[in-house]
Design goal:
By secondary structure, this protein is α+β, with helices and mostly antiparallel strands. The protein is built from 9 helices and 10 strands. It has 2 domains: 6-95, Phosphorylase Kinase, domain 1 (2-Layer Sandwich); 104-279, Aminoglycoside 3'-phosphotransferase, Chain: A, domain 2 (Alpha-Beta Complex).
Amino acid sequence: MTRSARPDRAVLERACAAAGFDPAGAEPIRLAENAIWRLTGGVVARIARPGQETSANREVRVARWLERSNVPAVRALGVEQPVTAAGHPVTFWRELPQHENGSVADVVGLLKLLHALPKPDDLNLGALDPFVRVTERIDAATTLHDDDRQWLRDRLYDLKGRWADRPTGLPECVVHGDAWVGNVVVTDEGPLLIDFERVSLGPPEWDLASTAVKLTTTGSVSRAEYTEFCAAYGTDVTEWDGYELLSGARQLRMTTYAAQHAATHDEWRPEAQYRVDCLRGRAGPPPWQWKGIM
């Protein structure tokens, strides 16, 4: 079962009319939690979920701040945005040139630039919430047994309590919030940071843990790659007292993301259930070979 493009196209057309863009010939790039469309003239439109106006507005403001700060990143277009169409906030971006996925080394290079920036006084980024939308994802995970969903809720409750009393670590800074190779692209001019939906103020260890869990949880990053990552940044987050908490939160996010989408994509049901089984101790010790979805 796949998501239909028709509702997104109707939203796109209304948003383009409001922002002054031509939707004729628009092509979908990715239709998932957020729908990404390519317009003519080097424009990309991003349609967010209803109720995400604050997040969309923050993404645009963060992109403009990063541009002023000379951080290589995707650029928001200079129009009044976001535009709301049929309840969906829609933002418009400069289309990226030809590119490929980033590497672990690209991620750490951009994180060092981001984490070194002074906290902006005019963005009101808010505090990092590692558990944003996890409750909604569990509620939407209708392919899981009730017992598994309750276990996920209990796990969420436990992690939230521990987060409030987490160990002291590196000084807080602006964090990307979802810093992994999927949110870095490489062009002829070098790596660029993308996707600012979760940018906020918080512990830099949260961003570092995104790569660490690829080693300790999923096995998708090699020991050599991770050693290079730590050397480039100057610390190994897995040695921090709070790492088990961060990895647990990351595991929960990855699992509930898969479980939510398994409800509308039958082909992802086995992967969602496997991730739950891993967390519940039914599939042996980590690292597990979790497969990507979407």
